[in-house]
C-alpha cells in the first residue's frame, strides 16, 4: 500500500456493526440467563449495561464478578444459544454494497473481531464479503480482554498502513479504546450492543448508519 493508500483505512468490527445480530444476542442472552438463574433482560437495559470485558457486564447484573468456574459456564451457555441463532442473521442493510464500493474506489479495509476466528471466517465468507478485506482477524485465544492489544497485532500485519490513516468503526466503547491505544481514530455506530448515551462517553463521533460512519471516517483523516 504505502503511497498508494487512499483516504482512511477502516478497521471494521463484526458483531453489531457489519452483522446485524443484536436480536440474536438478546435471544441468546435471555436463553442463557434462564439456564443460569438470572432474570431476563430487555434490549434497552442490555445496551445500557453491556461492556467489554464481558465478565464486567455480569458484575453489573449480579453485583459481583462471576467466579472463574461461573464465567466458563456463562460463556459456554451463551455461545451455545447464540450459535443456533447466528445463521439467521443478515448483514446490516447496505453494508455489502458499502464495502464493495470502498474496495472499487481503491480504499482499504480490514476486519477485527472478538468472535472466535474459526467461526468468524466461514461466516464472513458465507455473506460473500471476505474478499472486501485485506485482513480478517478473530479471537484465537480464550481471553475475553478487549481489543487493544489485538489491534496492535492487527495493524502490525497491515503493511504500509500508518496508525494516523486508520479509523476503527464499531458498536462498542471498547472499539474506541482500541483505536486510541494504537493512535488511530474511531467512529461508533448505534445499531449494536450499546446505547447512544453509553457510546458518547468515549468522546468520539457517534453515528446512526454505516454510510455516515464511513463519511465521518474519511473526514477524520482528510
Question: Can you tell me about this structure?
Answer:
It is built from 10 helices and 8 strands. It has helices at residues 22-36, 43-49, 54-62, 68-83, 95-104, 117-126, 148-156, 173-181, 196-200, 210-221, and strands at residues 9-12, 19-20, 90-91, 109-116, 136-139, 166-170, 185-189, 206-207. Strands 5-4-1-6-7-8 form a 6-stranded parallel beta sheet, sandwiched between helices. Helix 8 links the parallel strand 6 (166-170) and strand 7 (185-189). Helix 1 (22-36) packs across helix 4 and helix 7 packs across helix 8 (173-181). The two termini are 17 Å apart. The mean pLDDT is 94. Pfam families: Hydrolase. It comes from Streptomyces lasiicapitis. This is Phosphatase. InterPro entries: HAD-like_hydrolase_sf, HAD-like_sf, HAD_sf, PGP-like_dom2.
Layout of helices and strands:
Elements: E1 9-12, E2 19-20, H1 22-36, H2 43-49, H3 54-62, H4 68-83, E3 90-91, H5 95-104, E4 109-116, H6 117-126, E5 136-139, H7 148-156, E6 166-170, H8 173-181, E7 185-189, H9 196-200, E8 206-207, H10 210-221
Parallel strand pairs: 1-4, 1-6, 4-5, 6-7, 7-8
Antiparallel strand pairs: 2-3
Count of discrete alpha- or pi-helical segments spanning 4 or more residues: 10
Distance between the termini: 17 Å
Which structural class fits the helix and strand makeup?
A: alpha/beta
Estimate the helix proportion, in percent: 40-55%
Going across the major beta sheet, what is the strand order? 5-4-1-6-7-8
The percent range for strand residues is 5-15%
SSE string: EEHHHHEHEHEHEHEHEH
**Rg estimate, integer Å:** 17 Å
Give the low-confidence spans: none
Average pLDDT number: 94
| DSSP summary, beta strand count | 8
Give the overall form. Answer: globular
Largest sheet features: 6 strands, parallel
InterPro entries: HAD-like_hydrolase_sf (IPR050155), HAD-like_sf (IPR036412), HAD_sf (IPR023214), PGP-like_dom2 (IPR023198)
Protein name: Phosphatase
Organism: Streptomyces lasiicapitis
Pfam family, one: Hydrolase
